[in-house]
Amino acid sequence: MKYLLGHRRLDNTLVYVHLAKGLTNFSEDCSTAVAKSIEEASKLVESGFEFVKTFDNIMLFRKRK
């Protein structure tokens, strides 16, 4: 990230990353979905869902509204 932003010092990058986190609205509404197979996961990704994590062999996805 430091090189992408063109910063010489990591401290400068951390300031911008911190500011960006503050601007992000984490209470944003999301649609959620689960997939139990690769086929289900593929369909979710094709329809715009983003993979979040796997929990007990179930893949969790989200999509911003």
Can you list the strand order of the major beta sheet?
Answer: 1-3-2
How many helical stretches?
A: 3
- How many strands? 3
Average pLDDT score: 79
Distance between the termini: 27 Å
Tell me what portion of residues adopts beta-strand conformation.
25-35%
Give the key terms.
single chain, 65 residues, alpha+beta, three-stranded antiparallel β-sheet, 3 helices, 3 strands, 29% strand
Short description, anyone?
With 65 residues, the chain is α+β, with helices and mostly antiparallel strands. The protein has helices spanning 2-5, 10-23, 38-46; strands at 30-35, 50-55, 58-64. It starts with a helix and ends with a strand.
Characterise the protein shown here:
By secondary structure, the chain is of the alpha+beta class. It has one domain (2-64). The chain is built from three helices and three strands. The protein has helices spanning 2-5, 10-23, 38-46; strands spanning 30-35, 50-55, 58-64. Strands 1-3-2 form a three-stranded antiparallel β-sheet, with helices on one face. The chain is elongated, with a radius of gyration of 17 Å. The mean pLDDT is 79.
Topology:
Elements: H1 2-5, H2 10-23, E1 30-35, H3 38-46, E2 50-55, E3 58-64
Antiparallel strand pairs: 1-3, 2-3
